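Service request form, structural biology core

Requester: graduate student, group of Dr. S.
Request type: structure prediction, single chain
Budget code: on file
Notes: please return the result as structure tokens.

Sequence provided:
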Amino acid sequence: MAKKLGFKDFLNVDYAPGMPDEIKKNAKKRKVDTPTGNTNEELAVDEALTPTQRRATARIFRKFKQRREIGKERAKRRIASPEKLKKRARRQARVVVLNKLIKDVKKSELTYAKRQELEKRLETPTYKKQIDRMAVKILPQVRRDELKRKRGKKSDD
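Core staff response, request fulfilled:
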């Protein structure tokens, strides 16, 4: 069944004022095509995906592949924000703790159930504190790596 039209569907909004028609059209498409309808909003995930949801997510990611690649290229040219660096440090700390838990086995070789169990375990307060402490220790190195990456690029240009 088709979606019922609301008041906002009839508004004529200029998403790129003062730009050529082609750019306006693409801006409107970007606004309409985003999964949430809001380009700045991130999806909050609080539980694991079912296989059906995983396939649907894969379709969405395939659809927006080109946009993600353009975004990655733009992001590469900028220095990461402090929030982004903290996020990277936390992710690295999480990987270190996870590798301690699974020892010699690769994460990709684990079953989905085992992975879910480990992810749940990492969310417990004990492991969260451990990950947070480790992230604080890793942060200066992450910052140095980012600056080295940017300096390396400038010398190649």
